[in-house]
Amino acid sequence: MLTPTALAELRGQLGERLSTSETELQRHGRDESYHPVTPPDAVVYPESTDEVAHIARTCHAHGVPMIPFGIGSSLEGHIAAIDGGVSIDLSRMNRVLAVRPDDLDATAQAGVTRRRLNGVLEPQGYFFPVDPGADATLGGMAATRASGTTTVRYGSMRDNVLSLVAVLADGRVIRTAGRAAKSSAGYDLTRLLIGSEGTLGIITELTVRIYGTPEAISAAVCPFPTVEGAVTTVIRTIQLGIPIARAELLDEVAVDAVNRHHGLDYDVTPTLFLEFHGSPASVQEQMEEVVGIGGENSVGTVRTATRAEDRNRLWRARHEALYAVLALRPGSRGLITDVCVPLSQLATCITETRDDLARSSLLATIVGHVGDGNFHTVFMVDPDSRAEIEEATELNRRMVERALRMDGTCTGEHGIGLGKKDFLRAEHGEAVEVMREVKRALDPRNLLNPGKVV
Amino acid sequence: MLTPTALAELRGQLGERLSTSETELQRHGRDESYHPVTPPDAVVYPESTDEVAHIARTCHAHGVPMIPFGIGSSLEGHIAAIDGGVSIDLSRMNRVLAVRPDDLDATAQAGVTRRRLNGVLEPQGYFFPVDPGADATLGGMAATRASGTTTVRYGSMRDNVLSLVAVLADGRVIRTAGRAAKSSAGYDLTRLLIGSEGTLGIITELTVRIYGTPEAISAAVCPFPTVEGAVTTVIRTIQLGIPIARAELLDEVAVDAVNRHHGLDYDVTPTLFLEFHGSPASVQEQMEEVVGIGGENSVGTVRTATRAEDRNRLWRARHEALYAVLALRPGSRGLITDVCVPLSQLATCITETRDDLARSSLLATIVGHVGDGNFHTVFMVDPDSRAEIEEATELNRRMVERALRMDGTCTGEHGIGLGKKDFLRAEHGEAVEVMREVKRALDPRNLLNPGKVV
User: Fold this and answer.
1) pLDDT tens-place string over residues B10-26
2) Does the first or last residue of chain B, that is N or C, have fewer Cβ atoms within 10 Å of its Cβ?
3) H or E element: which one contains B231?
4) Could you report the per-residue pLDDT of B105-124, keeping only the tens digit for each?
5) ipTM value
6) Between A241, A412, A431, which is nearest B212 by CB?
7) CA atoms within 13 A of residue B73's CA, in its CB half-sphere
8) Model-level pTM?
9) Domains of chain A (ranges plus CATH)?
């Protein structure tokens, strides 16, 4: 809770950059998920790590919860202020501090979004690969250990962050590592903070890996008569070590939604969106190999695109699939599942899930980063219908149980937040107690994003 | 310290698999470094995770230090029993439990060495890439966050471990993750344990990524007139995104040692050992590109090898370079530095280091995983000469300061152990206190490998 004294102190520090307007509070109490709006008591807009540290010291002294906020694109209620407190909105920390092509790294404040970073990198011939779809902030992406369409080739935030600056619960500032490509110096605090969802520290600055723009890129859209054919094609591709850059599945419902939303005419059937990066010869070789594997799985007519303009149009359709799908039912919000399983289990997991969905009354679609063994079911629910949320939650529960039986995870990339806390123990058992011990050690007063993860 | 009661209890549990023989104690008190022998009070040889848990419960109840021991190939005194206690030798936990080609992963007990694992994988057409040179155990490699010659392409232990089973200080057993390729479910305990050097838990089982044997492999040995030419060639190769699989530098002293040790006739000049993995066309393309870059840096006559037999001979020379170098001075032991810097700084860092070495009276050589920005100076010191160890230590201190000024690390892959504790604070500042808080939370009685890291 935010006491009047703490509020006055924060206002003294931040002036106009503290807001208690109802609009701002509401906006900071909801992410892109079905979770109910749970607004904070105030929103602050720091502009530097020092300011965040100052805010944390004040909140710590007065026992005020702190909820870091990027752009609000999380999907499990991560930013809900369930105990009140202050939303620390990092959107004004939006400067790219350094791009170092010779080291293949860049440093940015936590409020920089991935598109903004790429806007700076692209003219220099580089890019940052992690791509969760939404134009999330780098800080938020690190906090949820985000991944996305390119993870099959380039890895997730776990793999692409070299170093973090973070503010701890009591206002101390740490830098977790230098910029060397690897280090064995002490505990891996970088990876401890990545995925901690704001519960162990507030990430204020990141140094990330960047990559040279591939010499050649080509994309392919591959329709299949069945989901199994599409998934099997990707599984074989990965097993053969073909370094595919993107391998996205859209089921027939999602393709239909994308067609309607964008005025496109893809065959309404399970479809793979693929992308290949490399030298012109290697891209050609990869594409031929994958299309060959597709042929063994009854792929239809493959459409390819090599020009940037054509590829961007194609990928825009994939990226906005979530919004296209939600538009199928105006007013609905997404309850989105996120299981991830070992590759050999993926086809079975999706098939059993589709059987479950077929028996449900809910409108739902499956899209997935199938190269990672990760897929999402999007339930288009009425956020005010308890029955619909319960039905979707129950289907999700069954899906998580299925994934855990297959030695997978309840969340490949969205995180635990509020929505998956019950599953954390099912997945990790005794290890959850260890997570709690770490939490208590670093935030003994439970002020950093309380009620999330553990 | 090991009390008589605790000793009796452990003997009751383990019988013949507990030893207090002087030979065994001595063997478990020394790694491959210059650090003095510091034997434990007893050595135990558990055969299962349950047995390790049982041992931990006993040691915890009696306040007995526990030092996990793999094969003793660490380089910073990691296994020294500075407070006495029990060395937990995992060498009998040497079973490969599962190989899952369809998931590209394998599960093994912690005492399995990397060569043993590869011996199981290779007939099936797969391999485990992390290669620190020594035939270390997987548990030890995870504990030190080891990397090595293939890290430039395949990553380090941080990147190649999917999941761990570990025994905590009080005997609780945790499994840190399932086998999904990625997960956002809670804190990354896998990465917290990797690099914790036995101070947070005893790793007993690992699930690691495996890779299909590349369709084509070729190797090249490239002599250069200067170290700068060799290093610049690798830096450009990485900056251009050429997916080189290995890029090892040996300076002229190391090449000379290897020639003598193996009866070879390489030009005694700074030399790159390179390896390329991929399709036959891609391997050819990579090799031509890199040799072209070498040409801009005055490379001499390049020797290549494609047959497995020839490549193995070549790489055996590189792998045994440390032993070859130490053989230059019989009776000497290695004091080995391990700095790692951002790539753009590597040539300067090595040049300044060579200038320093030129002014020293010590016999020393530079070898390095230059694709990662990581190199080692091997000082061949008389382990009984305080003056030599002090001189080498002072040169190392200057090297670490240089690396930290360049935003690098004091250890790219060997770890902190006893030898680099002073540097940890210089590198991490306030973050070391956070590491201590984590240590206190998970091992409040300081029984797990006490005195190491933090």
Assistant:
1) 999 999 999 999 999 99
2) N
3) helix B227-239
4) 999 999 999 999 999 999 99
5) 0.96
6) A241
7) 24
8) 0.96
9) 4-89 (3.30.43.10), 96-212 (3.30.465.10), 216-323 (3.30.70.2190), 329-414 (3.30.70.2740)
